[in-house]
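pinning this so it doesn't scroll away 📌
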Amino acid sequence: MSTLAKWAPAVLALVLVASPGIWRVSRNTITIAHEGGHALVALLTGRRLEGIKLNADTSGVTVSRGKPTGFAVVLMYFAGYVTPSLLGLGAAALVTTDNVRPLLWATVVLLAAMLIMIRNLFGVVSVVATGAIMFAVSWYATEEWQAAFALFVTWFLLLGGVRPVGELQSRRLRGRAPNSDADMLARITRVPGLVWVALFAVVTVGSLLLGGRMLLPL
């Protein structure tokens, strides 16, 4: 892989995450992964998933039914902020073992499964558009372009998974996130919300460092 093909996806991902104006749009992709994480853990822990909404302001909500407390609920609330980064880490593992096409197709399948549970128009458009791009690249692009695109997606998940954690704590400090995942976890466990934010940061930053270490030798 040429130097340009190696670094251009990382630079593009950084621009999409670091630029305030662009981030307001690109963050929707991170929200899809965030809410998908809530939904997947809810299903895996036996909760009844009722639906997912993705909003134009990049917020989202996943509604499930089950016990209001317990380990399953803790896992479900914890999953949201760490899922994009963990997906990025998994993507890095696939990219570095030359499993680019399986990565793209797995993403399409996951988005299709998520689409079934979307309950608002903006959410449907967001998921369909993201899935369509993934499908188009996996079906029509050359292997070189597929590899570059997979690198971009991986870097975007790794970098984009970190920023929302900082934004969360900023909103909490201003009293604008009383029902955030961290605060819901605090009510359930009686562990301060700041501790949960710190744990989100450990996972997301750790995933970025580990994923970056895997990708940089390419």
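📌 and the second one:
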Amino acid sequence: MNLLDYIINDIKPLLNSQKVSEAQLLFNQLTYSHIPIKNEDGVYLGCVSENDVHCFESDKLIKDYAYAPEGFFVRDDTNWLDILEAFAQNSTNIMPVLSNKNVYLGYYELNDVISLFNETPFFSEAGAILIVEKGLTDYSFSEISQIVESNDGKLLGAFISKIENDVAQITLKINNANLNDIMQSFRRYSYNILTGHEDDTYLISLKERSDYLKKYLNM
């Protein structure tokens, strides 16, 4: 994928010498959370948010609120996961792109970057989703890979989907393999299996034993 193909220039940055009313009007016409701002020399100053702009006095200049622009951006060689992280950290749906010489090139839209997920094997390839958890200092991705591959499986993707109370939750996408054997191996390595699976023979066995015990006690 070529991320540069996703750079957009539909909306030009506002000059900080323009009136606040112009920014307010632009926000009324758009669905963006922020708009890029530059000075008369073309230097990128940051982005102003819609919430801030609507609180400003309309007849003043944008530069009268020099403290307002938020200086977030990404480079034209930033990878897409770091771009997505930048979106999340700044609670924005527009991300300015600068060259390594700080030249403003345009911006990314959040929906375009999210759509790149659909092109990854994690989503496009057939396979099963398995969610496991283990202590934050006890798990390792090398161990997870070894467990999957030792059972003739292949990892199509893995990421930490949650961290809470020093426990890490890891979401895995595994190609067509014997998922039961993989889950049994994870349990042997003290991982907790969070996803249910209708063919999980371990859980079926536990249920059968529980039902038998319940029947026995009711005799």
